[in-house]
């Protein structure tokens, strides 16, 4: 696993990452445990070919290399790994048309998650 989507994605779901991923390895959770799996997307650690295209595409700066994930987001790495462990609870994410966030919205989201 090289790349992971972090909590900065939660409730943002711009899906620019989905549009650029060449192998459709970005998933959404479809199960009932919303406490554990919030409303965000996750990268399948085995299907990802590690191209890195999703990182600059994300306007919320939610995608990180695993070795660069900030300490406050470390738990999110394990959530991405769960896509491999529990495939029945996820499906490939589809594109949802959303406006690109303004700079102040991105800054506010950064501040929200620390
Ligand atoms: S582009 Fe960023 S915020 Fe949007 S779904 Fe992908 S990782 Fe989440
Ligand atoms: S690194 Fe490439 S293959 Fe992996 S999730 Fe991002 S866009 Fe998809």
Explain what you see.
The chain is of the alpha+beta class and 114 residues long. It has a single domain, classed as Alpha-Beta Plaits (2-Layer Sandwich), CATH 3.30.70. The chain has helices at 16-20, 54-57, 74-85, 103-113; strands spanning 3-5, 26-29, 41-43, 63-65, 90-92. The chain has a three-stranded antiparallel beta sheet with strand order 3-2-5, covered by helices on one side. It is globular. Bound molecules: iron/sulfur cluster (SF4) (2 copies). One iron/sulfur cluster (SF4) binds at residues 5, 9, 12-17, 41, 58, 60, 62-63.
> Based on the structure given, which CATH architecture is correct?
2-Layer Sandwich
Terminal CA distance: 24 Å
Task: Give the overall form.
Answer: globular
Strand arrangement, major sheet: 3-2-5
Q: What is the chains' assembly state?
A: single chain
Ligand types? iron/sulfur cluster
Instruction: Please give the count of helices.
Output: 4
Share of helix, binned? 25-40%
User: Can you tell me the number of structural domains?
Assistant: 1
CATH third-tier fold name: Alpha-Beta Plaits
Arithmetic mean of pLDDT:
95
Q: Strand percentage, roughly?
A: 5-15%
Largest sheet, in brief, is: 3 strands, antiparallel
Order of helices and strands: EHEEHEHEH
Q: How large is the radius of gyration?
A: 13 Å
> Which structural class do you get from the secondary structure elements?
alpha+beta
Tell me the number of strands: 5
According to CATH, what is the class? Alpha Beta
Low-confidence stretches: none
């Amino acid at each position: 696993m090289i790349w992971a989507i972090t909590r900065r994605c939660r409730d943002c779901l711009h899906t620019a990452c989905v549009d650029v991923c060449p192998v459709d390895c970005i998933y959404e959770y479809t199960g009932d445990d919303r406490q554990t799996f919030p409303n965000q997307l996750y990268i399948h650690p085995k299907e990802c070919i590690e191209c890195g295209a999703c990182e600059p595409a994300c306007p919320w700066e939610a995608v990180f290399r695993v070795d660069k994930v900030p300490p406050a987001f470390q738990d999110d790495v394990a959530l991405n790994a769960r896509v491999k462990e529990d495939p029945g609870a996820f499906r490939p994410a589809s594109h949802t048309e959303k406006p690109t966030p303004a700079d102040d919205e991105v800054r506010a989201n950064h501040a929200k998650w620390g």
